[in-house]
Design brief:
The chain has a single domain (5-119), classed as 2-Layer Sandwich (Transcription Regulator spoIIAA). It is globular. Strands 1, 2, 3, 4, 5 and 6 form a six-stranded mixed β-sheet that branches. It has helices at 33-42, 63-78, 90-98, 111-119, and strands spanning 5-14, 17-28, 50-54, 58-61, 82-86, 106-108. The chain is of the alpha/beta class.
């Protein structure tokens, strides 16, 4: 069975921050939560918790996927980092609104706006 999710990670220096850009393509679900957690875990071994997460090609997100995002957000905050999400499609955006978590996360329109967001941050 093909993976339900693909992850690509890039690193960029944006302003004064080293930022990890994580592109998530596919579906974040219970069915692939362990696979996704294992893939993401290795990207946090470098102690870089400034993250721009690209949801442009995220097709589906269930409660387990949302729980994983909340765990990532907590880890990022605990390590004095910043998590920014690109605005997802209308279906996934509706899930954030339904769960009242839209205001919990920082959203930007797209990767360019995310890069600009990090570039403007001071230390």
């Amino acid at each position: 069975m093909d993976s339900l999710v693909q992850i690509k990670v890039e690193y960029e220096k944006l302003g004064q921050k080293n930022v990890k850009i994580i592109h998530i393509n596919g579906r974040m679900t219970l069915a692939n939560s362990m696979e996704l957690a294992n893939k993401l875990k290795k990207y946090f071994d470098d102690d870089n918790y400034n993250i721009l997460m690209d949801f442009t090609n995220l097709q589906y997100l269930d409660s387990k996927g949302m729980a994983m995002l909340l765990t990532i957000e907590r880890s990022v905050k605990d390590n004095h980092g910043i998590l920014v999400l690109t605005r997802p499609n209308s279906f996934i955006q509706g899930i954030f609104q339904l769960t009242n978590l839209e205001s919990y996360f920082t959203f930007v329109k797209d990767l360019d706006e995310g890069r600009e967001y990090f570039s403007k941050l001071k230390t």
